[in-house]
Amino acid sequence: MGKATGFLEYNRIDPKKRKPEERIKDYNEVKIPQDPEIVRTQGARCMDCGVPFCHGGVLLNGAASGCPLHNLIPEWNELVYKGQWRGTYKRLTRTTRVPEINPKS
Known about the structure:
Helices cover 34% and strands 6% of the residues. The chain is mainly alpha-helical. It has one domain (6-95). A two-stranded antiparallel ribbon has the order 1-2. The longest helix is centred in the last third of the chain and has 11 residues, at 85-95. It is globular. The model has no long low-confidence stretch (mean pLDDT 81).
């Protein structure tokens, strides 16, 4: 579950996005990758609250909520928080194949 009080201790830090002027020139990622330590801290914010919205993409009042790929987000966040990147990849590929991700280790 990350850290039981992580959502209280750490503010949400969204990745910055590349400027549209840059993005129209290629098909690279829109969001700029964050430092792994920031990613780990963000993984600590998961409360594993038991609300199933993070597991499945559902529409709530016309807005998408949760993972549209039905990934098991609390389990994934736990592995991110612990810095277990190989396990994070394995957890992710249990529910979806993401060919763009190619772990080097």
